[in-house]
């Protein structure tokens, strides 16, 4: 039941929703929204099915729909036709993929729809300051990283796409571990992620893409629960020199709520070394409850995008000035840490 | 007095095509085609000289004909006919050394063009998504054809240092596809069912063989105004295709195989003699490889006629339909769309 009308969480959000509805109409999955949702209660769920059914395995879900189609068939028809056109394109391979393996169609129609229930219902993400993301051109969104599994990055991706008036796509930079794991690497590439290295980031920024990076890396995501919301070292600040070279503004982003999804109370280091992963989390439920323990806690999230820090005023050689790099890195880090504390003070409870 | 062009590796389809094409250029006087085995295709009016480039005899040929342009195309992944991997490696590496040695001695050679491959970059998950000519690969290829190309390029760089008066052009081709292409990847795509690595969907780039011949021609003549044709260039068609897209466009079903079992399946297929799954090809089919072609456009001044997708489409046309032809699948979907309950009666799109 993911795509029921979004309950506006605050001013920002409702404004974003109002602005994005005309754009959304272009996507087949949503085609019936305006007309159908108010009366036909089962539709939102069916839309989800439709998106999933687009993968070759699932059969066409049309027959069951027939009774509901009669009163206002036009919208549904168009959606079904859109779904079939999508299926046809997928089956014949006639879709476009960019240099990084980003499959925009698959991301919009399938992957985003799979993440949206988590985004809207499970973590109830509240987004603030989306107007700080530029409407066009390259920009580097720098966020804190937490939560044992990188769900915060994925939620940030949905947050940017669903709230930004232009529906911009966030291109995340991911750790090399992501690209070594089977299945994960395939999905990550198709969702527009690429390896966190200066070459890829620069290439994306040059093309005017919105790039998301979490410079804390494994230090941030795998830190113990007791250190929650304490920002770790921001790598070597490579992201700043990349942004400087591309002249792209840096948008600091603070994510609250992701720290508590898997409270990591221990780290089985030996096991992690055997498995070749940076840490093996022990939470109150994992691995004791098995797969059930791997379910994240349903915390309430807030994602806030801060004032952009311009980088185009610096001379060309500034990107190689270590002092400037450290200063800018600190500035970004301070800004994120500061708004994290502010958001934490405003937060009523972890879960509501 | 026109150019005298010596071409190695003419027994291959691509070499033969290049020889036939380059003879028609007005600035070319004479073409000497060299290979260890006589080609099955005709070579137009070129002089075929049967010589093994692993032997010092090649120096005599250079001197005898007064060759001024050498196009080295005998760096290949697979043996022609029934050669072993060992002899292929020897031709690639020792052959290149002999040829370069001969070129170094020759006072007439002015230009050297080497057909290399983008496999010099290897493929690893830690590499950047797009390779430029200057990218240093994170893990160098450990063996096979990829290592040969790395070594060949090393010797070519050494030659360029010792003979700065010779214009040296190294062309790193992405996978060459086309109606007559006989590369290992073309063989792979001709399998009725494509084994793939489970959980990986590599990004692939192709060059059409027409474009490959054109760019070799461009590199073997004097540079056009405003361009430079010495140096190292990536050659690939625009855009890319995922392996899953390729299989769907080909209409050949895929069988995902778990990575640990892949080598085993590969050697089984090799034993049956269906295809040669070399380790570097496996890595290509696991992690994929995409190269930047800005240098090719801006410095070399070459615009490929075919994009990656068009080159692949041309290859598909030449191979005939697979088990799951895309046209039939699309037709099936259209039939579902035309069923009355699917709303096709009211909505034609």
TrEMBL record, chain A:
Transmembrane segments: none
Pfam families, alphabetized: Acyltransferase
Annotated InterPro entries: P_lipid/glycerol_AcTrfase_prd (IPR016676), Plipid/glycerol_acylTrfase (IPR002123)
Residue ranges occupied by any Phospholipid/glycerol acyltransferase domain in the UniProt entry: 139-258
Residue stretches of biased makeup (Basic and acidic residues): 63-78
Keywords (A to Z) from UniProt: Acyltransferase, Transferase
Cross-referenced PANTHER family: MONOACYLGLYCEROL_DIACYLGLYCEROL O-ACYLTRANSFERASE, TRANSMEMBRANE PROTEIN 68
Name of the molecule in the record: Glycerol acyltransferase
Gene source species: Streptomyces alfalfae
From TrEMBL, chain B:
SUPFAM superfamilies: NAD(P)-binding Rossmann-fold domains
Protein name stated in the entry: NAD-dependent dehydratase
Pfam families for the chain: Epimerase
Organism: Streptomyces alfalfae
Highest classification ranks of the organism: Bacteria, Bacillati, Actinomycetota, Actinomycetes, Kitasatosporales
Superkingdom of origin organism: Bacteria
PANTHER family xrefs: BIFUNCTIONAL POLYMYXIN RESISTANCE PROTEIN ARNA, NAD-DEPENDENT EPIMERASE_DEHYDRATASE
Domain NAD-dependent epimerase/dehydratase: 5-236
């Amino acid at each position: 039941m993911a795509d029921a009308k979004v309950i506006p969480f605050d001013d920002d959000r409702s404004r974003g929703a109002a602005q994005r509805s005309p754009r959304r109409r272009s996507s087949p999955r949503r085609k019936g929204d305006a007309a159908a949702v108010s009366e036909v209660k089962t539709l939102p769920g069916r839309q989800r099915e439709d998106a999933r059914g687009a993968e070759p395995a699932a059969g066409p879900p049309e027959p069951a729909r027939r009774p509901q189609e009669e009163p206002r068939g036009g919208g549904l028809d168009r959606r079904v036709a859109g779904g079939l056109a999508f299926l046809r394109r997928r089956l014949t391979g006639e879709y476009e993929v960019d240099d990084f393996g980003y499959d925009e169609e698959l991301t919009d129609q399938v992957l985003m729809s799979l993440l949206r229930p988590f985004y809207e219902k499970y973590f109830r993400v509240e987004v603030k300051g989306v107007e700080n993301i530029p409407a066009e051109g390259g920009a580097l969104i720098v966020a804190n990283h937490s939560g044992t599994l990188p769900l915060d990055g994925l939620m940030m991706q949905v947050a940017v796409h669903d709230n930004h008036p232009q529906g911009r796509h966030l291109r995340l930079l991911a750790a090399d571990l992501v690209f070594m794991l089977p299945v994960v690497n395939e999905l990550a590439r198709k969702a527009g992620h690429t390896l966190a290295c200066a070459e890829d980031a620069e290439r994306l920024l040059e093309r005017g893409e919105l790039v998301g990076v979490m410079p804390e890396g494994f230090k941030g995501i795998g830190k113990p629960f007791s250190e929650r919301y304490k920002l770790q070292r921001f790598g070597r600040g490579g992201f700043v020199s990349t942004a400087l070279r591309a002249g792209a503004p840096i948008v600091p982003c603070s994510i609250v709520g992701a720290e508590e999804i898997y409270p990591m109370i221990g780290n089985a280091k030996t096991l992690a070394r055997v498995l070749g992963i940076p840490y093996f989390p022990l939470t109150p439920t994992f691995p004791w409850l098995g797969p059930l323990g791997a379910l994240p806690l349903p915390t309430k999230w807030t994602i806030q995008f801060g004032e952009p820090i311009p980088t185009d005023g610096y001379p060309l050689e500034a990107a190689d000035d270590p002092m400037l790099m450290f200063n800018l890195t600190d500035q970004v880090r301070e800004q994120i840490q500061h708004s994290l504390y502010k958001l934490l003070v405003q937060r009523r409870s972890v879960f509501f | 007095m026109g150019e005298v062009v010596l071409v190695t590796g003419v027994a291959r389809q691509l070499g033969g095509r290049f020889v036939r094409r380059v003879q028609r250029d007005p600035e070319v006087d004479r073409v000497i085609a060299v290979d260890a085995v006589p080609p099955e295709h005709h070579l137009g009016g070129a002089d075929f000289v049967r010589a093994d480039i692993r032997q010092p005899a090649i120096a005599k040929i250079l001197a005898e004909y007064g060759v001024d342009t050498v196009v080295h195309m005998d760096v290949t992944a697979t043996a022609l006919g029934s050669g072993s991997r060992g002899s292929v490696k020897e031709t690639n590496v020792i052959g290149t050394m002999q040829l370069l040695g001969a070129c170094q001695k020759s006072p007439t050679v002015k230009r050297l063009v080497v057909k290399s491959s983008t496999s010099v970059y290897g493929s690893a998950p830690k590499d950047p998504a797009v390779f430029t000519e200057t990218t240093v690969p994170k893990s160098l290829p450990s063996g096979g054809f990829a290592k040969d190309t790395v070594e060949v390029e090393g010797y070519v760089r050494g030659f360029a240092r010792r003979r700065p008066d010779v214009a040296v052009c190294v062309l790193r081709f992405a996978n060459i596809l086309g109606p007559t292409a006989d590369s290992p990847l073309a063989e792979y795509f001709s399998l009725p069912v494509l084994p793939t690595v489970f959980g990986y969907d590599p990004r692939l780039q192709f060059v059409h063989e027409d474009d490959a011949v054109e760019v070799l021609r461009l590199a073997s003549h004097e540079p056009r105004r405003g361009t430079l044709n010495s140096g190292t260039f990536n050659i690939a068609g625009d855009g890319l295709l995922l392996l899953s897209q390729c299989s769907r466009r080909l209409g050949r079903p895929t069988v995902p195989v778990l990575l640990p079992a892949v080598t085993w399946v590969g050697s089984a297929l090799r034993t049956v003699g269906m295809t040669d799954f070399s380790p570097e090809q496996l890595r290509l089919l696991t992690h994929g490889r995409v190269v930047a072609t800005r240098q090719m456009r801006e410095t070399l001044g070459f615009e490929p006629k075919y994009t990656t997708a068009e080159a692949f489409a041309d290859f598909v046309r030449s191979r005939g339909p697979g088990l799951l032809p895309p046209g039939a699948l699309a037709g099936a979907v259209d039939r579902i769309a035309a069923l009355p309950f699917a709303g096709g009666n009211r909505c034609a799109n």
